[in-house]
Structure formats: structure tokens, C-alpha cells
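Justification of computing resources. Each target in the renewal requires a structure prediction run like the one illustrated here; the chain below, 206 residues long, is used simply to show the kind of job we budget for.
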Amino acid sequence: MATWKDRFDSSVIDFFPSLGIDEVGRGALAGPLVVGAVYFDKDYMIEGLKDSKLLKDLERRRLCDIIKKKAPYWSIGWAYHWEIDKLNIYSALVLACKRAILNLNFLPDTIFFDGSLKLKTFPLKHIVFPKADRLVPSVAAASIIAKVARDDYMINISKFYPDYLFDIHKGYGTKSHFEVLEKKGLSKIHRKTFCRFLGRQRLCFE
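Resulting C-alpha cells:
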């Protein structure tokens, strides 16, 4: 099994072909956790490909369109706020990963995950790299399509909860988000298990 120390040794590890998997929304207070999965069967030269967190929105969306056109396989897996509350965030992550791979209709030999957490209950062999989204092209691509999918979801659902400004903070714990929570309490898409810092009265849905 390759490890982080082998990341630059091509005799031990090769990033092509591979399925890259990355998630967004794990730490958000509201909305889904989204997993992107992208398979590259050869060294696609996509200029500007990098971790989604290092890209501005417009560039991220441009790259997302290119990735979806070039990648032989790509998919998105979702775990919604009620599943995160019911299962816990770790199990919800595994669930979203399984859904992303099932949506591919294809089982690759090599799967890379970004992160440092070994997914013990994930049923397929996989390699976990800290900061793989900055090193493995397929993982960087996965981070981009997951980020765009989740951002679009939060922008669209914000129309139903305009007071909560989900289109701006995307459900993360910003100052403006905390201020709305203090005034209005939870919306129906908040993760109750992530908002226990609120008083009991505010844990009721608005």
C-alpha cells in the first residue's frame, strides 16, 4: 500500500489511471455533504487544474465544464442534512462516496481520496493522501465538480430561505450566518447536531 511518503515515487505510485474522490461541505452548519468522483485514464492536460479552494468561482466553473467534457467518468454523491444528523458525519461521508461510485457504473482499480481519515467502512481498496487535492489531478478535478454542485444547490435553495443568506455563505459558520441563527433559529436544512451551541429554543425549526 502506498503512503504519503511515496507520493513523488512513480515506481511506487502512479496517478494515471485513477479515480479521484473529494468532498465539500463536511464542516458546514447547513445543507448537504457532497462528494465528487472523477476518473482520468491518462494524463489529461487541463491548464489551471488545482484544488477547488485555490480557485475563484468563475474559474472553478470554467474548469468544471472542461472536466465534465474530458473525463471518461465523473459523478456526484450526496448525503443530506437529515442523513448527517441521523448517521454522523463520518458515516454520511462514506454513504456519499458509495453513491458517487455507484453513479459511475464503473469500478476502477485505483481510488485516491483527499484527507487523512482512513475510511475503514468503505468497501473498496483506496489510498488516502493528505492534500491529495493539490497533488493528484483526478482528486483536484473531483474537488472542483463537488464544490460547484454544492454551491449551486445552496444558491438554489436560498430562494426558499432568503433570510438565511445561504447563497452567500453556503451554510458555513460565518459571522452573518451566526447572526441569523441567533435571531431566527434553525431552518429546515440546518444540521441540528452541528448547531448544539444554540439555545434550546433556537434549535426548533423556523
